[in-house]
Amino acid sequence: VTELDKKSFDGFTEDGNGMIDFWAAWCNPCKILSPLIEEIAKEQKGKIKFGKVNVDDNLELSRRFQIFSIPTVLFFKDGKQVDRFSGAIPKADILKKIKENF
């Protein structure tokens, strides 16, 4: 899972399929979701790019994508946002979202 900021974000999402986790170190639901995303990233290696954005360090990106609660995960296909979800959801639900979007 690649740590992203405003300099690297657009380049990371412009080609292929990507899933971006907007999170913060103090956020308990983020601490629940993060290991699930790490696990899925290993299983989906080479198929989907996984990134994460620390909202405390990247307010500009948080505003740009209207992140009002965390964790929020955005799905990108060739540079365009195609879906999102907020909150810590079960692994099976994340995999379902991946299947629906990619």
How does this structure look, described?
With 102 residues, this protein is α/β, with parallel strands linked by helices. The chain has four helices and five strands; from the N terminus they run E-H-E-H-E-H-E-E-H. It has helices spanning 9-13, 28-43, 59-64, 91-101, and strands spanning 2-3, 17-23, 49-54, 72-77, 80-86. Strand 2 (17-23), helix 2 (28-43) and strand 3 (49-54) form a beta-alpha-beta unit.
Rg (C-alpha, Å): 12 Å
Give the terminus-to-terminus CA distance.
18 Å
Counting DSSP E segments of at least 2 residues, the number of strands comes to 5
Which range does the strand content fall in? 25-35%
H/E order of the elements?
Answer: EHEHEHEEH
Large-scale geometry: globular
Q: Into which percent range does the helicity of residues fall? A: 25-40%
Looking across the biggest beta sheet, what order are the strands in?
1-3-2-4-5
Helix- and strand-based class?
alpha/beta
Number of helices: 4
Show unreliable segments.
Answer: none
Biggest sheet: strands, sense, closure?
5 strands, mixed
Mean pLDDT: 97
